[in-house]
């Protein structure tokens, strides 16, 4: 079946073992993606604040919860 170009997988891929997997990169990406998908400033701040409340594993889980539709994350 031939699909329309708009159906192409446009997800961002992140390998947590690479430099893109560091917490600062993920926090910045949360801000950028949040803007692109129309989240207001307060919502983006709440998400990033929650990401920094605990450890790295929780940060990744919260990021995935909010942005998993746009990002594929690999361990």
**Helix/strand order:** EHHHE
Give the structural class.
mainly alpha
Q: What is the general shape?
A: globular
Estimated radius of gyration? 13 Å
Can you count the beta strands?
2
Question: Count of DSSP helices?
Answer: 3
What does the oligomeric state look like here? Answer: single chain
Low-confidence stretches: none
Strand proportion, as a percent range, falls in 5-15%
Average per-residue pLDDT, rounded, comes to 93
Spatial ordering of strands, largest sheet:
1-2
Distance between the termini: 32 Å
Describe this structure in words.
With 75 residues, this protein is mainly alpha-helical. The chain has a domain at 31-75. Helix content is 49%, strand content 11%. The protein has three helices and two strands, in the order βαααβ. It has a two-stranded parallel ribbon with strand order 1-2. Helix 1 (23-36) packs antiparallel against helix 2, helix 1 runs parallel beside helix 3 and helix 2 (41-51) packs antiparallel against helix 3 (56-67). It is globular, with a radius of gyration of 13 Å. The mean pLDDT is 93.
């Amino acid at each position: 079946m031939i699909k329309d170009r708009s159906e192409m997988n446009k997800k961002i891929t992140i390998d947590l073992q690479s430099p893109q997997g560091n917490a600062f990169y993920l926090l910045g990406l949360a801000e950028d993606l949040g803007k692109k998908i129309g989240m207001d400033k307060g919502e983006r701040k709440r998400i990033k604040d929650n990401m920094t409340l605990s450890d790295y594993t929780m940060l990744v889980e919260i990021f995935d919860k909010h942005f998993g539709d746009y990002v594929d994350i690999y361990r």
